[in-house]
Structures are given as structure tokens and as C-alpha cells.
Amino acid sequence: MPDAGPEPSFWRGKRVLVTGATGFLGGSLVARLLEYKSDVLAIVRNDRPQSRFAVENLAAQCRVIPGDMASPDVVKAAFDAGPIDALFHLAANSDVEDFYRRPAESFRSATDGTLQLLEAVRHRAPECAAVVSSSDKAYGPQAVPYRESQNLAPRHPYEVAKASQDLLAQSYGKVYGLPVAVTRCANYFGGWDFNWHRIIPGTIRSVARGEPVVLRSDGKFTRDFLYIEDAVDTQLLLAQAVARDPKLRGEPFNFSQEINIEVIDIVRRILTLMDSKTEPQINETAKAEIRFMQVNCDKARTTLDWRPRHDFDLALAETVKWYRGYLSRSGG
Residue 92 is part of which domain span? Predict the structure, then answer.
């Protein structure tokens, strides 16, 4: 029997609200929803010319609501647009180093925005299927692989913010009985990621430009990953499931390729794919970040019948190919 996946017929004609539409996952999710003929509303705080949402002019096929989702007026405008069938809350400051430098502002944006959205669902759209994006980093530095049965133990400001969003969503799902669920995904990768501080796109661009490849860590940190198309699948599949099964309300789910790979190994795989003899430089500027990360996806397999559709190495090769084409067309 094939693994469960998104059902295009489920999404046809659905009105769907997406926050973080100009982000990496947001742009790919909006593109898929449009492919499935959904009616998409997007809350957009800042224009990002270098994003899939902008480059493919996805705004022309959506209703865009400008502003900060932490503002009650912005959230009200979204829910005033008409009945909302599903909500994907992806908006967040994903720059871990920026979070370290500006924790207060980043905390307010993450927690206030999540609370505004959940309150709107509670009072105005209690049947709306909502998925809140947490992160594997919400677990904090503890034994791997992470399982959903473990208590969250965040330390770094970014980890604490993601855990706060996570726990808020769990509370509203379990206490108020709302169809809300949580994703805890590993690091996304694939085409259309323009955050050059991330290890995969940053390494590819550095090699393409003939620049040194510099690591923020000692290279021995381990990370787990999830290909962007699989990440879109998880969002849609979990929303479908929580809309149908009340037992899933407030439940968190891990999603990843379930790999445990050192950062230096990722870099060397990319160098091999790009036929580069560059030797990575160790900078060791990472501050208070988790050293070892990997998630266990047994719960998603048994409850949702989910598995990633893409092999990690093949997806990494496809990612390198995508960036080579993009950087060649854009002049680097």
C-alpha cells in the first residue's frame, strides 16, 4: 500500500491562510496550494525580492494581507476576508544568530503572533484545521534521537521561542478542542532557499563563486534534514489528518530524513558533487547551539503513514543542480 500523502481533491476550493509566505517553506507551500486550486490568503510582513513568492509572482494568484501577524488588526483583516478552512503558521525569524543578538524582539514576534492566530481560530474559525511549525530545536540539547514523548528542554533563545509556539499550539488543541497540530521538522533544504547563512545553500554559493567555504562550528555538529518537497507534504498531510481525527488535536509530530550527519560531511558531499577541491575553513563562531540533533519519526509513520518521498543523497544532488542553474542565470 502506498504511503499516505497530500490529497489534491481535499485542497481544491479550500480557503487557506499562510503566514511566512515569503519564507523558504512558505513559498513552496503556497506554490503547491495554488497547484491544488486552493484560495490562498498570505500575511506578508516584509517584501522579499529574493524569495520564491516574489520571483514566481505568487502574490498575483493570492490575496496578500500586508503587516505583522502580531498585530490584532492584521489578523482580523485575514479572518474578515471570509471563512478560513485551513491555516499554516510558518512565520518566524529563522536566523539563529540574529535571534541570539536580538532575543526580546524575536520573542515578541514569535509568541505574540502565534497567540493572535490561535485566538482568532478559537473565536472565529473553530473548525479551521491549523498547523503550527515548531522545530526539532525546541527539544534543546538532550539525548538523540528526539521523540515526541520527551519533554522540551530549550536553552538558546531561538529554541525557547519555538518551544513557546509549540506549547501554545498544544494547549489550544488539547484544552479548547481546536483542530491544531504541530510539526517539529529537521532542517529544510532544497531549491529556493536564499538564506545564505545556512550550510547547504551557503556552501553551494561559495563554491560557485570561488570563495572560501567557512563553517561557523568545528564541523562536528550533527544535523538531521528534510527535503523541501517532503516538508510541504508534511504540512498538508497533517492538516488533512487533524481536520478528520479529533484524537490528533494538540499533537506534535516529528518529520525528517532520520539521518545523523556531521556538518563537515555535508560540506564534503557538496564539494564532491561540485567537483571542488576546496578545503573547508573552521571558524567556530556558533554560540550556544545544540551540538547533536536527530529526530525519530515513528509516530508519523504509525499514525499518519508518512515517509519522505525523496532519498537524501538524490535530493542533495538535485539541490546542487538547482542552485547551479539559478546562480548561473542570476550572475551569482
Answer: 9-192+226-256+293-309
Which has the closest alpha carbon to 137: 286, 5, 1?
286
pLDDT in tens, the chain (332 residues): 345 789 999 999 999 999 999 999 999 999 999 999 999 999 999 889 999 999 999 999 999 999 988 889 999 999 999 999 999 999 987 777 787 888 888 788 889 999 999 999 999 999 999 999 999 999 999 999 999 999 999 999 899 999 999 999 999 999 999 999 999 999 999 999 999 999 999 999 999 999 999 998 888 999 999 999 999 999 999 999 999 999 999 999 999 999 999 999 999 999 999 999 999 998 877 666 789 999 999 999 999 999 999 999 999 999 999 999 999 998 87
Number of domains in the chain: 1
Catalytic (active site) residue 172 = no
Residue 227: helix, strand or coil by DSSP?
strand
Which of 231, 20, 242 has its CA nearest to residue 110?
20
Residue 275 forms part of a structural domain: no
In sequence order, what DSSP letters do the residues of 280-315 get, joined into one string?
A: PEE-----S--SB--B--HHHHHHH----SS-HHHH
**307 Cβ contact partners less than 8 Å away, ≥ 6 residues apart:** 3, 297, 301
| CA 257 to chain CA centroid, nearest Å | 14
What cell numbers appear for 327 in the block? 546562480
Question: Which DSSP helix (H) or strand (E) runs through 202?
Answer: helix 199-209
DSSP 261-282: EEHHHHHHHHHHHTT--PPPEE
Identify whether 304 is part of a domain: yes
Which residue is catalytic, options 36, 139, 146, 158?
A: 158
